[in-house]
Design a protein that fits this description.
- The complex is a heterodimer.
- Chain A is globular, with a radius of gyration of 19 Å.
- Chain A folds into two domains: 90 residues, no CATH class; 73 residues, no CATH class.
- Chain A is built from eleven helices and no strands.
- Helix content of chain A is 57%, strand content 0%.
- By secondary structure, chain B is of the alpha/beta class.
- In chain B, the strands form two sheets. In chain B, strands 1, 2, 3, 4 and 5 form a five-stranded mixed beta sheet that branches.
- Chain B has two domains: 119 residues, Up-down Bundle (Glutathione S-transferase Yfyf (Class Pi), Chain A, domain 2); 152 residues, Rossmann fold (3-Layer(aba) Sandwich), CATH 3.40.50.
- The longest helix of chain B has 17 residues.
- The chains are: A mainly alpha, B alpha/beta.
- Chains A and B meet through helix 6, helix 7, helix 8, helix 9 and helix 10 of A and helix 3, helix 4, helix 6, helix 11 and helix 12 of B.
- The structure holds iron/sulfur cluster (SF4) (2 copies).
- The site of one iron/sulfur cluster has 15 residues of chain A, from helix 2, helix 6 and helix 7.
Chain lengths: 176, 293
């Protein structure tokens, strides 16, 4: 069997990680607080990259569930930075328009970044409303939301940077 | 630029901070309590002018360059405003700003992109500092200010992920640092208990997208806190504070105090009665039973 190395090289380059250092001790997966919800464990994802399993990796749920908590980085005897690897994988998945393994999490990121792009700051009320519309989870947490609101823990009005065009310029500078 | 402000009675050292989104909204009250703490230390706090969101998790999750530029603009603003030390309150913002600073210092092409968007390159003139660092260096200030010792509160310190974890990013040696934070809490007469879950993740943004999963994570943290004998959890991150009170289903909830809120209670700083009313898990029954409010 011949293994296609192009995916391995692409992820290594994009994440700045030497993924060949991993010897699959599974310390990363053992320390990962969300491993129990993943379809593949963090070290399995890494192994699949080594084996060139492009589509399975990019469509996995695991790459979206990683919250970048750095627990695995502390555990890894070879200092492989798994969260940087996961960042790179999500970027490639979006770029290649594959099926997204966790559409709700992607909706969260997308709506958050729309807020940032629009005014440079997050307006929580609008952000949560838009996230709910995007995912259809209209009533999930409605009671909790009302409670936060009553307690005065949500701002009524949005705030923003002085000149909103700057946010567009920043976006454009990294999309080039 | 002079770093001292003359207020008439006494000259206060001016401190600049990066507010970040949560301090301006859901954690606003904790922000206020933090500023009171700074006042206690003889400092005058001012926000970074025209700051923008650091990009938090979403930006680096899907576009690391965007994350660098979003955070980078803030550091550049600080440099332009003549700020030498910029204090960051939220551990997550701190990691984002620190990461961007490192990238801009080593990757000329990223700095060029920043200049393209914002008109100037970052020259490396700003020191990023993490707020609890400065607070934990001055326990004696707080010790002297205590008028309402919080005896009876038995807390576990909850550091979460980013407060201590990426040492090569945060740049401080973690063990003495943890000890200092413990000391800071102890001078308020709060008993601190050893436990195993001080760095177990609170679920971060999955609290919104995967509530069932985070319910389980928070329940485990609560369970361990209870087994250690705690009657409250003490948090250093505004977002952890929300998650640990918002989620969890099976284990009886514990109130989660934000560090500056505790100092406010112990020193009876202006506003402290208002802050304790803003919890999702009401701490007043506990505080009342101990005669602390
Ligand atoms: S901890 Fe490091 S070496 Fe071990 S399996 Fe994970 S990435 Fe590989
Ligand atoms: S950074 Fe991601 S993979 Fe690593 S332990 Fe945290 S959630 Fe798991």
């Amino acid at each position: 069997m011949k293994v296609d190395h192009s995916f391995f090289e692409e992820v290594s380059a994009r994440s700045g990680q030497d993924l060949s250092r991993c010897f699959h001790c599974m310390c990363c997966s053992g320390g990962c607080p969300v491993a129990h919800g993943m379809d593949y464990l963090p070290n399995q994802i890494l192994r699949m990259i080594q084996l060139g399993m492009r589509q399975e990796v990019l469509e996995s749920r695991a790459i979206w569930l990683c919250i970048g908590c750095y627990a695995c980085v502390t555990e890894c005897p070879n200092r492989v930075h798994i969260p940087y690897m996961m960042d790179a994988l999500r970027e490639i998945a979006l770029h290649e328009q594959v099926r997204i393994g966790e559409p709700d999490i992607w909706a969260f990121h997308r709506e958050f970044l729309k807020q940032v792009g629009k005014r440079g700051r997050i307006y929580e009320l609008e952000f949560m409303a838009r996230y709910k519309l995007a995912t259809g989870n209209l009533f999930q947490d409605a009671v909790m939301g009302m409670k936060m609101f009553r307690l005065g823990r949500l701002e009524l009005l949005p705030s923003s940077v002085k000149h909103k065009e700057i946010m567009k310029k920043i976006r454009e500078a990294c999309d080039e | 630029m002079s770093n001292v402000r003359n207020t008439g009675e006494k000259r206060l050292r001016r401190v600049h901070y990066y507010p970040g989104c949560s301090l301006m909204s859901s954690a606003r009250d904790f922000g206020t309590s933090l500023f009171q703490m700074f006042r206690l230390m003889g400092t005058w706090v001012e926000p970074l002018e025209d700051w923008n969101c650091c990009g938090a998790s979403p930006a680096h999750s899907v576009n690391p360059d965007y994350a660098t530029l979003l955070a980078g603009r803030n550091i550049l603003l600080a440099e332009r405003q003549g700020i030498d030390d910029l204090y960051v309150v939220c551990p997550s913002c701190f990691v984002r700003l620190r990461t961007a600073e490192k990238i801009l210092a080593t990757d000329a092409s990223m700095n060029a992109k920043l200049a393209k968007a914002c008109g100037r390159e970052y020259e490396g003139g700003v020191r990023l500092k993490f707020t609890p660092e400065i607070l934990s260096d001055a326990p004696s200030v707080f010790e002297k200010a205590v008028v309402n010792p919080l005896a009876g509160l038995r807390g576990v310190l909850y550091f979460g992920c980013l407060l201590t974890r990426p040492e090569w990013i945060t740049g401080f040696d973690i063990r003495p640092y943890e000890k200092k934070l413990k000391k800071l809490v102890n001078v308020l007469d709060v008993e601190t208990l050893d436990w195993s879950h001080s760095k177990q993740c609170c679920g971060s943004h999955l609290a919104v997208t995967k509530p069932d999963m985070v319910d389980g994570m928070v329940d485990r943290i609560r369970d361990h806190a209870r087994r250690a004998g705690a009657n409250c959890i003490i948090a250093f991150c505004p977002l952890c504070q929300v998650n640990l009170e918002l989620r969890g289903k099976e284990v009886e909830p514990l109130p989660v105090f934000y560090i500056s809120e505790l100092i406010g209670l112990a020193a009876k700083l202006p506003g402290h009665e208002g802050w304790v009313k803003k919890h999702l898990v009401d701490p007043r029954p506990l505080l009342n039973s101990l005669g602390l409010v």
